[in-house]
């Protein structure tokens, strides 16, 4: 694998925090510049006014993941055409926190924001997996009683394995102790009586994220005169 492909394979791990989709799939990565062992990642967002804290999270994650490549010496991030490009580019690349780069903002701590979006992504990924399991013959009781090990051992289709992997990836970030596979983001059990209401709430999170992703793609395409994404790739509601 050449250097550019290695960089893009790491960029596949960088997600828009609000949309829970890779920047590479959203079209947010404009290009990369590789000079020997130094890498510059140039990215763009749908509007000039996209939230600086969202952008900063993306910039930090770009730096983090690309720096994990063994041959990379230095990583630079460049956000194009944004109201806070200078602060984000200089601050993130130099290792400053968001609050250091934007001291005038009252909501300068990104940890709580990251946590909020982790929970939303948890709901969205979980709802997709539950919906798949229901469509493939499992009852709500069977789903709610599944252990993590049993979920791992289920003979799933390619689609099912992908949904399982993405959900468990998000669940692991919560450092869960409960051995049940399907729990709340707080690692609490879900009752059969509360299952339908819980699933409706999770579906709402998933639908909201998918709508926002579709909307952001459209804005990006209009802003940079990009070809329209194939609507058939959107998840059916």
UniProtKB/TrEMBL annotation:
Q: What is the protein's name according to its record?
A: MIP18 family-like domain-containing protein
Coiled-coil ranges (or none): none
Top-rank taxon of the source lineage equals Bacteria
Q: Which organism is it from?
A: Peribacillus simplex
Identify the Gene3D superfamilies for this entry.
Answer: Fe-S cluster assembly (FSCA)
Record's InterPro entries? FSCA_dom_sf, MIP18-like
Task: Give the MIP18 family-like domain ranges.
Answer: 4-77
Record's signal peptide: none
Any Pfam family the entry gives: FeS_assembly_P
């Amino acid at each position: 694998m050449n250097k550019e492909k290695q960089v893009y394979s790491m960029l596949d791990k960088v997600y828009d925090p609000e949309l829970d989709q890779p920047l590479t799939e959203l079209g947010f990565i404009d290009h990369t510049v590789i000079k020997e062992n130094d890498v510059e990642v140039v990215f763009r967002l749908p509007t000039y006014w996209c939230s600086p804290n969202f952008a900063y999270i993306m910039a930090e994650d770009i730096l983090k993941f690309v720096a994990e490549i063994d041959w990379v010496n230095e990583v630079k991030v460049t956000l194009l055409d944004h109201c806070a490009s200078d602060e984000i580019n200089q601050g993130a690349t130099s290792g400053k926190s968001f609050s250091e780069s934007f001291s005038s903002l009252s909501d300068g701590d990104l940890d709580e924001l990251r946590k909020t979006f982790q929970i939303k992504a948890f709901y969205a990924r979980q709802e997709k997996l539950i919906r798949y399991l229901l469509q493939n013959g499992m009852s709500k009781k069977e789903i709610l009683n599944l252990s993590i090990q049993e979920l791992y051992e289920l003979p799933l289709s390619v689609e099912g394995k992908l949904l399982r992997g993405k959900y468990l990836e998000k669940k692991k970030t919560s450092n869960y102790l409960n051995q049940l596979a399907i729990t709340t983001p707080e690692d609490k059990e879900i009752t059969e009586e509360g299952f339908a209401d819980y699933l409706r709430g999770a579906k709402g999170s998933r639908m909201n994220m998918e709508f926002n992703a579709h909307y952001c793609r459209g804005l990006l395409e209009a802003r940079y005169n990009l070809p329209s994404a194939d609507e058939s790739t959107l998840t059916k509601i």
